[in-house]
């Protein structure tokens, strides 16, 4: 059963202040909403935006569907549910764009609870004493037993929450309130203190501190590719046209080095390989220039908040000789990746006339890439 995620980000963040609405302010080097999107990477995501923010949202969407929100949070959620209606969605998670530190473990707990419940949401039991107050003076106390602080993502069976929103008069604080008004039973799962909602300016400092404590995310990926020789007079290697007595056979331009590097980037992101993103069965990629694939992988890395720290490509062939072209290949790859040439290495080796590369039946390439997220 497919699961979609709705990330509501159409509010104006009036309490947070700043030049931009809080979801567009920078947190540890990228927009708050970029962190939130990355937390749900790999899932079908819908981001609810304010019409004024469309250009910013398109820049970081990373494949998410963009839907325009309404004047209130519940109207924004409703717009996204209506946009998903009729698409065969089984379950939906609804999350505040302003909660960028949600963890995979918390998302997992909500999804697991949805296996046995029509609705599930995270919360933390209230641990402080509770008072009422009037004009700065305590006017009474309240029993905190059984009181919870609600968080998101809140999860629901899709048709049930869609019907609940359609029937609700509006004005709900969250989707659990809407669900309960429709008679749905909601399971509470353990929330997390770090899953804070950025609401006031000081919350940004807290979130930065939490992110620093989590440390760097360093990813290493590897790629390997082989293309056979066929009749021709040149080969494409790492973006450079190299004259040769043969060509390389492939669905695209058969740039074996660039393919290995592209797969290394996809590997570091756990995003499969070129074939997943550009299926060879799709005629539009016949004869395609391989920089399209590499650029896509690099953009995907950037959209997920990673910078490409370095990469290293080794071409394995007896001929053509790579040395005279290595600097041009390094420059070509660096330009496509958008990084300095000093972070790109291109080298070659023979296989001492052993195996298929030694018999000059084709060229092999291996590559590694390191991605870093601060
Ligand atoms: N019309 C609205 C109002 C809120 N939200 C989203 O709902 C989440 C939780 O709301 P809140 O923290 O109250 O955000 P804002 O409404 O932006 O903040 P404020 O009340 O301070 O203006 C936020 O991710 C916000 O962008 C939304 O999508 N559409
Ligand atoms: C949905 C919510 O995050 C649950 O805690 C919260 O109610 C939304 O924020 P708001 O400040 O109440 O709009």
Automatic annotation (TrEMBL):
Catalytic activity: 4-CDP-2-C-methyl-D-erythritol 2-phosphate = 2-C-methyl-D-erythritol 2,4-cyclic diphosphate + CMP; 2-C-methyl-D-erythritol 4-phosphate + CTP + H(+) = 4-CDP-2-C-methyl-D-erythritol + diphosphate
Pfam annotation, one family: YgbB
Region (2-C-methyl-D-erythritol 4-phosphate cytidylyltransferase): 1-218
Residue ranges of domain 2-C-methyl-D-erythritol 2,4-cyclodiphosphate synthase in the record: 218-371
Pathway(s): Isoprenoid biosynthesis; isopentenyl diphosphate biosynthesis via DXP pathway; isopentenyl diphosphate from 1-deoxy-D-xylulose 5-phosphate: step 4/6; Isoprenoid biosynthesis; isopentenyl diphosphate biosynthesis via DXP pathway; isopentenyl diphosphate from 1-deoxy-D-xylulose 5-phosphate: step 2/6
InterPro entries in the cross-refs: IspD (IPR001228), IspD/F (IPR026596), IspD/TarI (IPR034683), ISPD_synthase_CS (IPR018294), MECDP_synthase (IPR003526), MECDP_synthase_CS (IPR020555), MECDP_synthase_sf (IPR036571), Nucleotide-diphossugar_trans (IPR029044)
Residue positions binding a divalent metal cation: 225, 227, 259
Protein name in UniProt: Bifunctional enzyme IspD/IspF
Source species of the chain: Tabrizicola oligotrophica
């Amino acid at each position: 059963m497919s699961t979609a995620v709705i990330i509501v980000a159409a509010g104006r963040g009036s309490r947070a202040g700043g030049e931009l609405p809080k979801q567009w302010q920078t947190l540890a080097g990228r927009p708050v909403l970029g962190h939130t999107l990355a937390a749900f990477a790999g899932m079908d995501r819908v981001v609810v935006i304010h019409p004024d923010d469309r250009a910013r949202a398109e820049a970081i969407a990373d494949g998410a569907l963009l839907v325009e929100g309404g004047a209130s949070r519940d109207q924004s959620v409703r717009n996204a549910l209506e946009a998903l209606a009729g698409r065969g969605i089984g379950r939906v998670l609804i999350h505040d764009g302003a909660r960028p530190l949600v963890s995979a473990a918390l998302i997992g707990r909500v999804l697991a609870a949805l296996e046995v419940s029509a609705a599930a949401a995270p919360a933390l039991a209230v641990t402080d004493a509770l008072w009422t107050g009037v004009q700065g003076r305590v006017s009474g106390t309240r029993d905190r037993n059984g009181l919870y602080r609600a968080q998101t993502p809140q999860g629901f069976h899709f048709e049930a929450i869609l019907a609940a929103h359609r029937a609700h008069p509006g004005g709900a604080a969250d989707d659990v309130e809407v669900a309960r008004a429709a008679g749905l039973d909601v399971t509470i799962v353990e929330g997390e203190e770090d899953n804070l909602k950025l609401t006031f300016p000081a919350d940004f400092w807290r979130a930065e501190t939490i992110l620093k404590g989590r440390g760097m995310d360093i990813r290493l990926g590897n790629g390997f590719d082989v293309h056979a020789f066929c009749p021709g007079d040149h080969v494409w290697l790492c973006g450079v046209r190299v004259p040769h007595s043969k060509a390389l056979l492939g669905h695209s331009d058969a740039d074996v080095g660039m393919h290995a590097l592209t797969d290394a980037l996809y590997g570091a992101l756990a995003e499969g390989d070129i074939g997943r993103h550009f299926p060879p069965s799709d005629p539009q990629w016949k004869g395609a220039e391989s920089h399209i694939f590499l650029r896509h992988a690099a953009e995907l890395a950037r959209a997920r908040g990673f910078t490409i720290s370095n990469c290293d490509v080794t071409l394995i062939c007896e001929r053509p000789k790579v040395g005279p072209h290595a600097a041009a290949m390094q420059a070509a790859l660096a330009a496509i990746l958008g990084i300095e040439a000093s972070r790109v290495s291109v080298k070659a080796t023979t296989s001492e006339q052993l195996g298929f590369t030694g018999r000059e039946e084709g060229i092999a390439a291996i590559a590694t890439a390191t991605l870093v997220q601060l």
